[in-house]
Design a protein that fits this description.
4-stranded mixed beta sheet
Length: 421
């Protein structure tokens, strides 16, 4: 099969490109920094003690607020060194001004001023010099809210601990009836995350390598070498070779990224496995993930081949790429609809339209396994569409190889297709 020669040529040409090598190395590094930076920042967060003064006009909130600040640093020291300033009644404003003066003289890090109206909804004040630490502010807000709530309940003759126990929220655990008649636990968030991850990986791979295929075909049209190639092999062999060769290069890069990603996260693999077990993701879901990823990649790559076959320049390719990528956005925008009713008429219909099948069918499989005949029909329709897309691209390429200048219209492309029979 002469297409094998093209496959080898396209594969090794792409994997030896400088851009391939740089992106293969750079993407894992950037992803490691992206996910690891928050952890690193948390690890290197300065272990600082905060000196604060609490000015309490009510005379009842301050003690409870300070008692709630039990946080400690890694070395065991108290994180918040809080003092209660005498400030009831007419002394409130003077005490607040005195503490603000200490804050200005760097004797304090922050001041918490609690007015008498805080029990009726008036806002308390968080005064700081330069320590704009939102985590600290949130911690103070939670502690102050608890202290105020206790006083409000005590004024009504109610016990805070008992009220909190009685008003604990009830959580609903999502379960789903299986085909065997059993009930299994499901996680909406994890299922949505799994589907969204599949969509983004497929979208990124197609955007990068689909454009590579289209540009490769455009380059062939601009080169005189193509005339020699077509004298020894058919345009269909050339298109098929490019599709498989460039596709294998893309899969190689993704495989390298996956191996590097697993190596980087090896220490977290037990936790990941425990999480996967908790959300009950069937191995069949990952099998279909691989199948529909490959088919989806080939389908959209074949569509990019048509773009490359009718384009004369890279600018033409860039202008037409939106037409190819647009069908991927429709399932993405409708994802919540499929999540709510994966076996509804809209979901079933869209999952059998080849350009939507990779995303919609995978979403349905992850949520609620559809009937086998629907999965088989979706795969068959995708294979047929891939075949016709490659054939169409080959025929248009064969006739339009010497056509340059104005991009052909749809009517002209159909005419080229018929001429190449």
């Amino acid at each position: 099969m002469k297409a094998l020669t093209v496959i080898r040529r396209e594969y090794f040409t792409n994997v030896r490109r400088r851009s391939f090598i740089i992106s293969t190395i750079l993407v894992p590094v950037l992803m490691s920094l992206f996910f690891g930076m928050p952890v690193m920042l948390a690890m290197f967060e300065p272990q600082q003690q905060f000196r604060l003064a609490v000015v309490d006009e009510t005379g009842r909130i301050g003690d409870g607020f300070i008692a709630a600040l039990t946080d400690t640093l890694k070395d065991g020291r108290q994180k918040y060194l809080a003092t209660l300033a005498p400030s009831q009644g007419a002394h409130y404003s003077a005490a607040r001004d005195s503490c603000v003066a200490l804050l200005q003289g760097k004797g304090l890090n922050m001041v918490i001023a609690i007015p008498a109206g805080v029990l009726d909804g008036e806002k308390a004040s968080y005064i700081t010099r330069q320590d704009r630490n939102f985590n600290v502010m949130d911690r103070f807000e939670d502690a102050l809210s608890d202290a105020v709530l206790k006083e409000r309940l005590a004024a009504e003759g109610l016990d805070y601990a008992r009220v909190r126990q009685l008003t604990t929220n009830v959580e609903l655990e999502m379960n789903q009836l299986t085909k065997a008649g059993g009930v299994e636990k499901r996680s909406f968030i994890s299922e949505y995350g799994l589907v969204f991850f599949f969509v983004m990986v497929l979208y990124s791979a197609i955007l990068q390598w689909g454009m590579t295929i289209a540009r490769s075909i455009t380059e062939e049209k601009q080169s005189r070498i193509i005339e020699v190639l077509l004298s020894t092999l058919t345009s269909r062999d050339l298109m098929l070779g490019k599709l498989i060769g460039v596709g294998l290069a893309g899969m190689t890069q993704l495989l390298i990224w996956a191996v590097v990603g697993l190596a980087i996260t090896s220490s977290a693999l037990p936790a990941i496995a425990a999480t996967a077990g908790a959300i009950h993701v069937s191995p069949v879901v990952f099998l279909f993930f691989a199948i529909f990823f490959v088919l989806g990649f080939m389908l959209y790559a074949a569509m990019f081949m048509v773009v490359g076959a009718v384009s004369s320049t890279d600018q033409d390719v860039q202008q037409m790429q939106t037409v190819v990528m647009l069908p991927m956005l429709v399932p993405l925008m409708s994802l919540m609809l499929f999540m709510q009713n994966p076996n509804g008429g809209v979901a079933v219909g869209m999952s059998l339209i080849p350009v939507f099948t990779p995303l919609v069918m995978q979403a349905r499989i992850a949520l609620l396994m559809p009937p086998t005949w629907q999965i088989a029909l979706g795969i068959a329709l995708m294979l047929i569409t891939i075949y016709f897309a490659v054939t169409f691209a080959a025929r248009v390429f064969r006739v339009g190889i010497l056509m340059h200048g104005k991009r052909p219209s749809l009517r002209e492309m159909v005419h080229w297709y018929r001429m190449a029979r």
